[in-house]
Write a structure and sequence with these properties.
By secondary structure, the chain is mainly alpha-helical. It contains twelve helices and two strands, in the order H-E-E-H-H-H-H-H-H-H-H-H-H-H. A two-stranded antiparallel sheet has the order 1-2. The chain is globular, with a radius of gyration of 21 Å.
């Protein structure tokens, strides 16, 4: 998919019509306008700083490499590859729609995945691939990507479940744990789809909060081992601030709209963020003193 998109961009050589910057707010699919900060920094997650990737790296990727020297090309290289994909997607949008208003109109009537597939398929036409075939292939590739993400998410949820329950119990069994995790998710989705949709809006902020926790852990380890902890401390402070700001904005919005699930969930995550800051201060002071 990326190879076709990459070649299509160079062969089509599109002219970018949409302005690179149109203001500090953006119109979403619902027609409402939101500020770019802080939501841009929690929406563009995986290609920047991702808690989900931290879980995958600690629970899965770290057990699959045979040599520590492979970490940099796999981890850092993977993030660079995601950046390339993001640039291709941006070129597809900016090179297809002739104005900001045309793009806003399109995004309000089209799913983002469909927009990505159709714009990149338009470039693939320039290298001899029919529009319908290229678009179907792009949609298939995205669907495969989403399926592997769900698979990884289910595995990570099962890891977390096993860490919460006592080891010498039936619930700790990996098959039982997987069944419980899937049953809880299915029950939420089928029993209360509205609640599931509300919780999904918190994913980005919760993901970046988890990234902050990862950076916090790395900072404490660096300080404890007399290494330059500022390398991870600076992005940690930034990510804590951004995710907390986003959660506060969601909390205020939930209070106004009366969405109790979003309200309590965002409040819980904010309390968790505060607890992490306290733990960081205590652990950091202890690490410095020893």
């Amino acid at each position: 998919m990326m190879l076709l998109g990459f070649l299509g961009v160079f062969v089509a050589h599109p002219t970018l019509h949409i302005d690179a910057f149109a203001g500090f707010s953006a119109v979403g699919r619902a027609g409402t306008s939101d500020l770019l900060f802080p939501f841009l920094f929690v929406t563009v997650a995986c290609g920047a700083c991702s808690g989900f990737h931290a879980l995958v790296a600690s629970g899965t990727s770290s057990k699959q490499i045979s040599n520590e020297r492979s970490i940099r090309p796999i981890a850092y290289g993977g993030m660079l590859l995601e950046g390339v994909l993001a640039i291709i997607a941006l070129i597809g949008v900016a090179g297809t729609y002739l104005s900001q208003q045309e793009y806003v109109t399109a995004i309000q009537g089209m799913e983002p995945v469909q927009m990505f597939a159709s714009t990149i398929a338009g470039f693939c036409v320039k290298i001899g691939i029919p529009q319908r075939i290229a678009e179907s292939f792009m949609l298939l590739s995205v669907a495969a990507f989403l399926m592997t993400s769900v698979d990884a998410g289910t595995r990570l949820a099962r890891f977390s479940w096993q860490e919460l329950v006592p080891k010498k119990t039936v619930a700790h069994n990996m098959y039982v744990g997987t069944f419980i995790v899937c049953a809880l998710a299915a029950g939420l989705l089928l029993g209360n789809p509205k609640a599931a949709k509300q919780l999904w809006t918190l994913f980005a902020s919760a993901n970046q909060l988890l990234a902050s926790l990862t950076l916090l852990t790395a900072t404490i380890w660096l300080v404890r081992n007399r290494k330059p902890g500022w390398i991870t401390a600076i992005p940690m402070v930034f990510m804590f601030g951004v995710s907390s700001w986003a959660l506060t904005a969601i909390l205020v919005s939930a209070v106004k709209s009366g969405e109790m699930i979003r309200l309590f969930s965002s409040a819980f995550l904010l309390l968790l963020a505060a607890a992490l800051i306290v733990i960081a201060c205590l652990k950091g002071r202890k690490a410095v003193s020893t």
